[in-house]
Write a structure and sequence with these properties.
Layout: E1 7-9, E2 21-23, H1 26-30, E3 47-49, H2 53-62, E4 66-69, E5 85-88, E6 95-98, E7 102-105, H3 111-119, E8 123-124, H4 136-142, H5 149-152, E9 159-165, E10 171-175, E11 186-190, E12 196-200, H6 225-228, E13 237-244, E14 246-247, E15 250-258, H7 261-281, E16 289-295, H8 297-305, H9 308-312, E17 322-330, H10 336-344, H11 354-364, E18 372-374, H12 379-407, E19 414-415, E20 418-419, H13 425-438, E21 442-448, E22 453-459, H14 463-466, H15 469-482, H16 497-522
Parallel strand pairs: 1-11, 3-5, 4-5
Antiparallel strand pairs: 2-3, 6-7, 7-13, 8-14, 9-10, 9-13, 11-12, 15-17, 15-18, 16-17, 16-21, 19-22, 20-22, 21-22
Helix pairs in contact: 8-12, 13-15, 15-16
Length: 536
């Protein structure tokens, strides 16, 4: 007899058995004690490298506490062990299969390797984040999102199947659309011995923003697979991922310099509206922008101070007070010659082509004269645009590093990951800067402006200033909540105490307790990722 749609059975783990390779070698262990957030105090008794589902399951059952890590690119401390054994997914990095619309891969697969394998078949996985050294398992754990969220959505939108090892060593195989909450929001998992656990979806109402990595997912009739996406390894460990892929589109890039931020936001709004209209009407000749990245005036000052434009080979045009990095899709038959022709005839009102329409829009917003295009074949130029964008956080990191050498490691990088509905973005940016100014902190802001998601970075110059960053970040997060957004958009919550507090403020103690109840049900020992998402 078929089970109700909210009920799922586990199975026993499969694959080769035997003990997973583990080591207590101090040098190896030391290499796993810090993630990209540089959270202090990392410690672990051992590191394990399971090479199969069965090896992983056996290790999970026997470990009193464990933290699963991939590339440790977390910016929240979520991949820093604090006494738990480390489980590395490095030996679970296979590409099991690739078809025209699907790929099945291991959680330890690095995104740049996935992209390279897909490129050989002219395929593409759109939600790859800016840092392509992350692993697919890490992006699933945080519902990561990249620059192209505006057009393609987040990791959640591209996951079709997950295989998950639970804390008791049993295995869930989940396929999208198969297991959904009943009318009361309930799920039931039946174990192989006939026992079962029951729980309800989180009692929260997530903000309606395009990207969210802020605790457990919840929605009426939600799919069980979505509970594990974005759960930061606290409910189970993913061993197999089925993703959707698409044919790689024809794309070109633009670097736009604007005389002020207001113009940049007005142009962004116009590009968003035109692109949404083109996709709605399936207009092959309409503007189809997939991503718009932003850097503000203080960010540009950092670039100039580091001589990044000349070093990278992308000189800034005019009096740049705001930068926009724009990625757009083109018709499949668009080649360099036809694009150059459209650029040359951009002032012809009768031209009906995405490039012609974009040029006219840029002219209306005073951005055409200084616009720099990179054609589809100009890989180096497109890479240079990306390098210029990444030179902003690099400049911040260098300044923080220099300050640490003088004032010690307690002076750390402080950055927000905030998102608001796009119509409120101008108000939000002003509020973020005002919060920094109230605490006498320099602030450089960049990010995914097409999604309303930006990263205000605070630059304390001494330990006294560093002590004020927490209060400023709390103000920024609270403002995002007030404007209908969220204080955690794409990096997750991790071990960051400010983000954990903002999680409570976003959903209230009752909402967070409903998440904790699911955690206790699926992981009664509290063995998985202790201290991540919820303070211990």
């Amino acid at each position: 007899m078929a089970l109700p749609r909210h009920v799922v059975r586990t199975r026993a783990p499969q694959g080769p058995g035997g003990s997973a390779r583990c080591t207590t070698d101090p040098e190896v262990v030391a290499s796993f004690l810090q993630d990209a957030a540089h959270t202090p105090g990392g410690r672990a008794p051992a590191v394990c490298f399971p090479a199969s589902e069965r090896q992983l399951a056996d290790f999970v059952v026997g470990a009193p506490a464990l933290l699963c890590v991939g590339a440790q690119s977390s910016l929240t401390g979520g991949a820093t062990p604090c006494g738990a054994r480390v489980v590395s997914t490095a030996s679970l990095a296979s590409i099991e299969s690739v078809r025209s619309d699907r790929a099945v891969v291991g959680p330890g697969l690095v995104l740049r390797d996935l992209s390279a394998a897909l490129a050989d078949r002219n395929l593409w996985y759109p939600p790859v984040p800016t840092y392509d050294g992350a692993t697919i398992g890490g992006t699933v754990a945080t519902n990561a999102a990249g620059a192209a969220t505006f057009a393609y959505g987040t990791t959640r939108d591209w996951i079709e199947g997950l295989t998950v090892v639970l804390a008791n060593g049993e295995v869930l195989e989940l396929r999208r659309g198969e297991i959904c909450a009943d009318a009361a929001g309930r799920f039931e998992i039946v174990m192989s011995d006939g026992s079962s656990v029951r729980f309800k979806r989180p009692d929260i109402a997530p903000p309606q923003v395009p990207k969210l990595s802020c605790g457990y997912f919840s929605a009426p009739d939600m799919d069980l697979i979505d509970l594990f996406i974005g759960s930061e390894g606290t409910l189970g460990i993913v061993t197999r991922v089925e993703i959707r892929v698409v044919k790689k589109p024809r794309q070109m890039s633009w670097l736009l310099t604007l005389a002020n931020e207001a113009r940049a936001l007005a142009l962004t709004a116009a590009l968003r509206s035109a692109s949404q209209r083109s996709r709605r009407d399936d207009d092959p000749n309409g503007i189809d922008v997939t991503a718009i990245e932003f850097a503000d005036a203080p960010s540009i000052e950092l670039l100039v101070a580091d001589a990044a434009p000349s070093r990278i080979g992308v000189p800034l045009q005019g009096d740049a007070q705001a930068l926009l990095f724009v990625q757009m899709n083109l018709p499949a038959d668009a080649d360099d010659a036809s694009i150059l022709d459209e650029l040359a005839r951009a002032d012809d009102p009768l031209r009906d082509h995405p490039v012609a329409h974009l040029c006219k829009m840029l002219a209306r917003h005073g951005a055409l004269a200084t616009a720099l295009p990179a054609l589809p074949s100009e890989d180096r130029k497109q890479a240079a645009f990306a390098a210029l964008r990444e030179a902003v956080p690099d400049a911040v990191n260098r300044r923080i590093g220099a300050a640490q050498r003088i004032h010690g490691p307690s002076l750390t990088k402080a950055a927000a990951d905030v998102i608001v509905p796009f119509p409120r973005l101008g108000e939000a940016l002003a509020a973020y800067r005002a919060a920094a100014a109230r605490h006498e902190l320099a602030c450089a802001t960049w990010g995914h402006v097409s999604d309303g998601n930006v990263h205000p970075n605070l630059l304390p110059d001494d330990a006294v200033a560093a002590a004020r960053t927490s209060a400023a970040l709390l103000e920024m997060g609270r403002k995002a909540i007030e404007l209908g957004g969220a204080p955690m958009s794409e990096h997750g919550v991790g071990r960051n105490p400010i983000k954990q507090q903002l999680l409570r403020e976003l959903y209230g103690e009752r909402g967070v307790e409903s998440m904790r109840a699911i955690k206790r049900t699926l992981d009664p020992r509290g063995a998985l990722a202790p201290g991540v998402l919820f303070e211990t």
